What does this fold into?
Amino acid sequence: MELRARHAWAALLCLQIGIALPRPAKTADEIHSTFTGPTSVTFDWRGSESSIRYGLTSGYASSATAQTPAAAGSVPRLDHVIIVVMENHSYDQVRTLPYISTLISKYTSFSQSYAVSHPSQPNYLALWAASTLGISNDNCPPSGSPYSAANLGNYCEAAGLTWKSYCENLPSVGSTVCSSSDNLYRRKHHPCPDFSNLTHSRECPYNQLATDIAAGTLPTLSLVVPNMCHDMHDCSDSTGDTWLSNDLPAMISAVGQRGLVILTWDEDDRSSGNHILTVFAGPMVKSNYVCSQTIDHYTVVRTICDVLGLSSFANASSKTTPSDVWNTVTAVEPNPLEGLSLSPPSPNPFHTAMTATLWLPSERLVHAFVADCSGRRVRSLFAERRSGTFEITWDGSRDDGEPAGPGLYFLYVRAGRDQLVRKLALTR
It folds into this structure.
C-alpha cells in the first residue's frame, strides 16, 4: 500500500509536467526510476525520503529529442564546473608552455580535441548551445539573435541550478555592447547575451568571480572569458600562460573536491585542422593522464550536462562523455540520501504559510525555491551555505511580492549535488 501511494505521488507529478510513467521498482523501501519526455526526471525513494533530479530534454519551445545516455556509473556527479576559453592557438602551440605543461602533468588532457568551426563566434555558440546556430562569422549581434535555442544557461535555470558568466573588461552586469571602449572585451567571445531564454543579470564582469568565491557563492556552472590580451588573441602566448598561472589555481581550489575546471581553446590558428588543447583539472580526474578519445566542443557540453545531472541537447546529445578520465577513488558516488532529508511541509494544504524542515549531514550550499506545475520558478527562497537542521518557510508570495494564486506548487531544495522536492497545495 505504501509503495502504491508513493508511485501515485510520482504519477501526479508526471501528470503535471507531461511525462510518461514507467513501472515502479518492486521493493517497498526504495524506488529508482527515470522518466523521459519534455522533461527528464529521476526519482530516488528511500523510506519516506525522495530525491528528484530533472532537466529539459529540449528547448523551451521545441519538441523533445532522443538522447544517447552516458555509460551508467562511469561519470561522477559534480557540484561545480568552471569552463575557461582561450583563443586561436593549436594543440602543439600551447601544450609546452610553462604553466600549461604543469597543468597537463597534474591533471587530464586530451590529445584529440577539436574545435568545430572558424572564426571565433560559432565556436563559442557551440560551447554554450551545442550548435553553431548557422553562424559562420563574428558579426555582432549574430544573425537571428536573440535565440530561444536550448543552452547551458537555460538548462541550469530549469533544473534549479545556478550559473554565471565572468568576462574581463565587460562594462557592466548584463551589458550587450559588442566591444568595450578599450576593445579588450568582445561580445563575439561571450555567447550568453545572444539568448532570450536565460537571466542576463548572471552575466558579470570578471572581478565578480573573486567576490563569489570569497563569499562561498560560486555558482554550479561558470563560464570564464578572459580579455583579448589574456586569452592569447592579441598578446603573446606567454602572457596568456602567465594569466592562467595567476588565476586558474584559485578556480581549481574553489570548485572543491567534487568540482571540475575545463580549460579549452575556441579554435586553432588555421594551421592544424582545428586541433586544440582541452584540459580537465580538479580532484575528480586522473593525474598526468592523456585521453585519446576524439572530442569537440559538443563533447564538452555533453560532459557538463552529465556531471551536473542535466539532460543533453542539440549536438551534445549524440556525443559520449569521456569515461576513462575520472579518478576512480574519489569519484565513487556516495548514497545521495544518506543523512539528508526534507520533512513533509506543514500545514499542507496551507493558506498563509508553510514550513518544512531540512536535515543536512554536513555543510552544503543549499538552494531552495518554489515552482509551479509548468516548472516556472515562482519564488526563490535562499541560496547559501547551511548545515545541521533548519526550517524552510514559504509565505505564498511570488518574487515580485504579490501573492501567488491558489493551486499546486513544488518546493525544490538543492543541497550540494542532491535535489529534494515536496508538493505544496496553496489555498486562498
Observations:
- The radius of gyration is 22 Å.
- The chain has three domains: 1-56, 80-318, 338-428.
- Residues 237-254 form the longest helix (18 residues).
- The mean pLDDT is 83.
